[in-house]
Automatic annotation (TrEMBL):
It is found in: Cell membrane. One of its GO terms (cellular component) is plasma membrane. InterPro entries: BP-dep_ABC_trans_perm, MetI-like, MetI-like_sf. It comes from the Bacteria. Belongs to the binding-protein-dependent transport system permease family. The keyword Ribonucleoprotein does not apply. The chain crosses the membrane at residues 12-31, 78-99, 111-133, 145-165, 186-208, 245-265. Keywords: Cell membrane, Membrane, Transmembrane, Transmembrane helix, Transport. This is Inner membrane ABC transporter permease protein YcjP.
């Protein structure tokens, strides 16, 4: 009985700890969502804070489209995020495969270098890149943002993809080559289908990294027609006032694509993260 009671107490303890951390994640999203449906008077009334809109309104969403072309912001974000995520995933597959399957001089130093780059603040890279991009005409272009997102995300994704490849036995590729497959064909037809969850995880990581990025978008892009969603939403924060309703509405709309992506790919993301966490 004592063991059963102790086990039950531990179960309740874990439940409350997990519930606490879940609340930390969910409550800000809930507050952003309900604020986007409140009137401006209800939002700024600090004396009577409401936890659900007294007057349900869509004016914040309509105002968002009136202030600037939100569809253009969405298009710019999708173009830059998807294209950079695809290129990062392709480079990560090639780089991760070479690090996992081949032995060459400086391999350990290269992996260490990739890991060390994750400790360098991004702002230190942006300033030199800005000077380089300004010389070659890439300022205020999506190509400049694309190059930055690829540079920033490739090192971590290569190391992550390497761990996925290391879990797959080399004997599978050797058996395929015995049957007449080349190295490239065995990679495409045998290895990549097995590690599809890992590929999805890397793609999602690179996509989210580009989708949510603000600093580089603010520095490299100067005209409103080239803005991405984070840069457009930042413009709602003025020197003396903040348009909270439109800002919350924009946050909800920016969250939807990533939420849909996670909902649709949740199974593959979980499998990929757990697969890359342990080396067999």
């Amino acid at each position: 009985m004592k063991k059963t009671g102790k086990k039950r107490a531990l179960g309740f303890g874990r439940f409350f700890i997990l519930a606490f951390f879940l609340a930390l994640v969910v409550l800000p999203i809930y507050w952003m969502t309900i604020t986007s449906f409140k009137t401006n008077g209800e939002i700024i009334d600090m004396q009577n804070i409401t936890y659900f809109p007294h007057t349900f309104t869509m004016e914040n969403y309509t105002g968002l489209f009136e202030m600037f072309d939100y569809g253009s912001l969405l298009q710019n974000s999708v173009i830059v995020s998807v294209s950079s995520a695809l290129v990062v995933t392709m480079l990560s597959i090639l780089g991760g495969y070479s690090l996992a399957r081949y032995k060459f001089k400086g391999k350990g130093a290269m992996v260490l270098f990739f890991l060390v780059t994750q400790m360098i603040p991004g702002i230190l890279v942006i300033i030199p890149l800005y000077l380089i991009f300004s010389k070659i005409g890439l300022i205020n272009t999506h190509v400049g943002l694309f190059i930055y997102y690829v540079i920033v995300n490739v090192p971590f994704c290569v190391v992550t993809m390497r761990s996925f490849f290391e879990r797959i036995p080399v004997t599978l590729e050797e058996a395929a080559r015995v049957d007449g497959c080349t190295k490239m064909k065995s990679l495409i037809k045998i290895v990549l289908p097995i590690m599809f969850p890992g590929i999805v995880s890397v793609f999602v990581f690179a996509f989210i990294g580009a989708w949510n990025e603000l600093i580089a978008g603010t520095i490299f892009i100067s005209t409103p027609d080239m803005w991405t969603i984070p840069v457009g939403l930042k413009s709602l924060i003025g020197k003396y006032s903040v348009q909270w309703g439109a800002l919350m509405a924009g946050g909800v709309m920016a969250l939807l694509p990533t939420a849909i992506m996670f909902a649709g790919m949740q199974k593959f993301i979980v499998e990929g993260m757990t697969a890359g966490a342990v080396k067999e």
